[in-house]
Amino acid sequence: MPPTHQRLFYREAIVRALRETMADDPRVFVMGQDVGAFGGAYREFDGLFAAFGPARVRDTPVAEAAMIGIGVGAAAAGLRPVVSITYMDFLMLGLDPLVNYAAKLSYKTGGQLHAPIVIKTTAGAKGQGVAHSQCIESWLMGVPGLKLVCPSNPADAYGLMVAALEDPGPVIFVDHKKLFPVPGDVPVARYRTPIGTAKIIRAGSDITIATYSYMTRVAHQAADLLINEGISCEVIDLRSLIPLDAALVAQSVARTKNLLTLEEGQVTCGVGSEVAAQVQRRLGPVRVHRVGALPAPVSSNPVLEAACIPNAQRLVDEIKFFINATNPECLHP
Amino acid sequence: MTRHEMLYSMKLIRAFENALAAHPDHGFQLLSAGEEAVAVGVCAALAPQDQLLTGGRSIGFALARGLTPAEVMAELLGKSTGTNRGKGGRGHLSAPAQGFFGAHAVVAGNISIAAGVALARLMTGDPGIAVVVFGDGASGAGILHETLNIAALWRLPVLFICNNNQLSVSTPRQAVLAPKMISDLALAYGITARTFDGMQVDIVAEAVANAVQAIRSGAGPAFLEFTSCRFAAHSTAARETRSRDELQRLRLACPIMDLTAALLTTGQINHEALATMDSDVSDKVAAALNFADASPFPDAAEALSDVF
Amino acid sequence: MIYKLSVPAIAEDIEEFRVLEWHGGIGTPFNTGDMVVELETHKAIIEMRAGQAGILRVISVPDGAWCKIGVPLGLCSDSLDETLPEQTEATADMLVEFEIA
Fold it and tell me: Each residue of C19-42: pLDDT tens digit?
């Protein structure tokens, strides 16, 4: 019997989804900096240039606003572009065509036009400094019309990319620098991971950790350490931030009675704030604790970067504090 | 398009906008008296398969492109029978099936979008081109330069048109743009670029026809600047900063009056035909107003439709 | 003497890599500088070259298979007649060099 799964690096899962979809659908093309023969900053476009040529794998100048604007225009006119924005920090340069045009297009034209574009970008801290490390997913969560996915492993990266490429869009696909070295088993058969579905990736009974992207690994590490302390953690990978599967988180919290949100970005108006509010809307008051980066820029200095970003030991400390606190949000500084 | 038809089209725009401004529930609107020759001249040179994109000041372009006064009036007054089912409104008119991809009211916001439409046409072998109209106010925005560069590099079938009405709200163009001519901006990217008088509809139509022909033949993008003049304030809600005397002087160079005079002088039209034209225009505008007034607003539940 | 072919943490962050291709089968002799096996990480293809002469005796991770950092890829020996041990934990590491292809 042929194998049902193949082991792939995270980048290979992305490129497989692109390669298969581009072969099936001539409307799909890629544009971005260094996506051509170079194959992308993380080799996540490896082989596409050789397979599909320069018309469908287009190197661009460093011009994020025009890259997104041209991508959105091409999408509105019937194509399905994938625009690569190397680092999420640089998405800021292209927010006008994304937020003011693409996100509103279907609404403002009364459904005459749509923008089936995928914007693929890379977030996260990995020694690159204050303007190349940010996780600004929550900034986008208040923009009606956008969808936002943040896969934490190769199988979801493949399934969510396939789903994004078939979606009426616009979809922002956010990967993470520290996920590229991670391999994982990916089903060989073509499939899509529905946008808007979270997943319980570790069952537990004492606390629900709602997180996504690279922080799912930090959550796992902390959960391993806490077994010895007699604390059983359930970990939920949100996978999609718009739409947000708050129902699954609420089901889990209904059992564990404790919700801890974990993100690499800022806690203030962060992903966790929204998760907590939506869970409380379903369950009434629940114990909530939000964990994220310190309220400071993310330095390239290794000591300062590590101090800023949540790690397993800090998460262990936060969870122990939270579980034992009578009123965590009031007590914590 | 004949000169008669161009005159008719300009008169229709002027009468339509006057009627809209006089409508008690018009909100505020971006009108274009004085700039009709640019709208009509541009559209006279386009084919049905071309797509036109504009900035917010778009009523003239929408009408000149052939959208009916009734559907445009309904949209601008927020009615569900409008081009966008009342959901776009001022600055966002859109009818892609009629070659009017749409207006977008963010200054300079449609420039890169147009290049994307052109890219789609290039990649699919569609014979139409994309034409984007923006103002002098948009010409200082970075996105224009990013887009010109990529359009030139990829030889996109896109025509950039700067309708230089010489004012960004109240700020004169000379106060905020360094280049001698706005069209000079495109020359740096190797794009054919010229500046013409935007008050003469014949000149506009000919310049656009020539540029469109070159783009269709695969020459890559082109850039045209038309110098025009806005006769009224930025919007129906904005303060006018020019003096009454200055406005009176500016309004003497009117594209509609100029073409009328030219047609009368050469005997191409007579006063009787002009009167018939005026009465037809005013009937059309009245009918559009009646249609819009009689049309319903969208249901409040529409606030949540077409979002995703 | 018997040696194991180990892959240390050749680059930052690498937890696991793919064995692309062994250059030679069981019993293949090689000299210093010969390519023994090609590996692929998330970033690059890496050539593992012999840092001493020897003979390839055991391939534990075949072409196309995955290997975690620290797990031996196979065993080598100075001569063909040396008996292979049952346990490899105490075996010395073969001298190797890595080159990014």
Answer: 999 999 999 999 999 999 999 998
Domain range list for chain B: 3-291
- d(C-alpha B165, C-alpha B199), whole Å: 10
Residue with structure tokens 């709602």? A210
With the C-alpha atoms ordered B26, B31, B34, B38, is the resulting torsion angle positive or negative?
A: negative
For position A329, what pLDDT does the model report?
60
Whether B36 shows a pLDDT value over 70: the answer reads: yes
Q: A44, A64, A137, A318: which one is catalytic?
A: A64
- CATH entry 3.40.50.920 includes domain A199-324: yes
What pLDDT, on the 0 to 100 scale, is given for residue B177? Answer: 93
Residue boundaries of the structural domains of chain C = 2-100
Class in CATH terms, C2-100? mainly beta
Judged against a pLDDT cut of 50, whether residue B145 lies above it is answered with yes
Whether B and C touch (3+ CB pairs < 8 Å), yes or no = no
Whether ipTM exceeds 0.90: yes
A72, A79, A112 member nearest B113 (Cβ): A72
**pLDDT number for residue A327:** 67
Q: How far is CA C41 from CA A182, A297, B274, in A?
A: 10, 31, 78
A43 to chain C nearest CA, in Å?
7
Answer whether B125's CB lies under 8 Å from A88's CB: no
Measured between CB atoms, does C14 come within 8 Å of chain A?
A: yes
Q: How far B78 CA lies from chain A's nearest CA (Å)?
A: 12
Task: State residue A282's pLDDT score.
Answer: 98
Q: Mark yes or no for CB contact B116/A106 under 8 Å.
A: no
Active site residue A234: no
Put simply, whether C39 touches A (Cβ < 8 Å) is: no
Contact A231, A323 (CB under 8 A): yes
Distance of alpha carbon A86 from alpha carbon A83, whole angstroms: 9
Q: C72 vs B50, which has greater pLDDT?
A: B50
C90 has a pLDDT exceeding 80 = no
Provide the CATH number for the domain formed by A5-187 in this structure.
3.40.50.970
Q: Is C81 exposed, middle or buried (0-12, 13-18, 19+ CB in 10 A)?
A: exposed
pLDDT of residue A333: 44
Section C48-52 average pLDDT: 93
Tell if the CB–CB gap between A70 and B115 is shorter than 8 Å. yes
Lowest mean pLDDT of A72-76, A173-177, B223-227, B239-243, name the range: B239-243
Q: Return the number of other C-beta atoms located less than 10 Å from residue B136's C-beta.
A: 23
Low-confidence ranges of chain A (pLDDT < 50): 331, 333
Q: What is the pLDDT of residue A237?
A: 98
Q: Chain A contact for B125, CB < 8 A?
A: no
- Domain regions of chain A by residue span: 5-187, 199-324
Measured between CA atoms, how close is B203 to chain A, in angstroms?
Answer: 30
User: Is the N-terminal amide bond of C62 cis, ω within 30° of 0?
Assistant: no
Q: What is the pLDDT of residues B49-75, one digit of tens each?
A: 999 999 999 999 999 999 999 999 999
A69: nearest CB among B83, B123, B143 = B143
Q: What letter represents residue B255's amino acid?
A: P
Is A64 a known active-site residue? yes
To the nearest whole angstrom, how far is the Cα of B146 from the nearest Cα of chain A?
Answer: 6
Is residue B109 predicted with pLDDT exceeding 70? yes
Neighbours of chain C (3+ CB pairs under 8 A): A
Contacts of residue B151, defined as CB under 8 A and 6 or more positions apart, other chains included, come to B115, B118, B158, B160, B189, B191, B220, B221
Interface size, chain A vs chain B, as Cβ–Cβ contacts under 8 Å: 137
> Following CA atoms A28, A34, A38, A40 in sequence, which dihedral angle do they give, to the nearest 10 degrees?
-70
Which class in CATH covers the domain with range B3-291? alpha beta
Q: How confident is the model at residue B173 (pLDDT cuts 50, 70, 90)?
A: confident
Among A43, A180, A183, the residue with its CB nearest the CB of C66 is A183
Q: Which residue has 């892959």 as its token pair?
A: C7
